[in-house]
């Protein structure tokens, strides 16, 4: 026993740094111990892209080849978006089924911060798997992109942050109604419309999740535009969209959690 403990001083309480480290470690352990699941997700994503690319080339021919770079970037952003969106909603659904949800609620940090850090940990994992998917897609299509790592990471992170907010809102709804997986999966396909929104040239669509960030990511990876070359308004709109939707989703999650407690259905399944 140390002198501090003999003097009546107990161990220091864990802080958010310790919580973040534990959550990241847990995610790494799940990735290592269940590699078949992670590899299966990559294989499925590449399978659907292969169907899109080779099937589309047979049907559209030259028209698809001329736009393949944009399709690769859009598909890369879609895989990131699906990972960010499902990181919280699917995780909460699993915790409810396992009967371990109450442990997160009882932590001194609060349920929402724990869910937030778990979502961030899964986004880090999604970035790694989506990067593998991007590399394979470039090899399949024989295309080249402008891959400025700093610009891509910043723009992509802020872009999918808005989707993380939607994931928070979906996680809150999952707490209340438990089995809504079919509706959550349906919304993932709506991301395709949002990612392709910049091509519609409708100004107000920039206020929707993914839309504005998709346009900036296309310019970064196709034209080689660096982060500091975007206008201040474009960056401010990207940041405001990310913060706004994340804050909205966080508030919905908090409200749903309190309501589930009042109804006594927080841990029921």
How does this model look, in words?
With 269 residues, the protein is an all-alpha fold. It has one domain. Helix content is 77%, strand content 0%. It contains eleven helices and no strands. Helix 3 packs across helix 7 and helix 5 (68-98) packs parallel to helix 8. It is globular.
Q: How many distinct folded domains?
A: 1
Shape summary: globular
Helix content: over 70%
The tally of helices reads: 11
What structural class do you assign from the helix and strand content? mainly alpha
pLDDT averaged over residues: 80
| DSSP strand count | 0
End-to-end CA span:
45 Å
Keywords, please?
269 residues, mainly alpha, 11 helices
Compact overview of the structure:
With 269 residues, the chain is mainly alpha-helical. It is built from eleven helices and no strands. It has one domain.
Question: What is this structure's SSE topology?
Answer:
Elements: H1 3-6, H2 16-33, H3 35-60, H4 62-66, H5 68-98, H6 101-105, H7 111-141, H8 149-177, H9 181-195, H10 211-222, H11 232-263
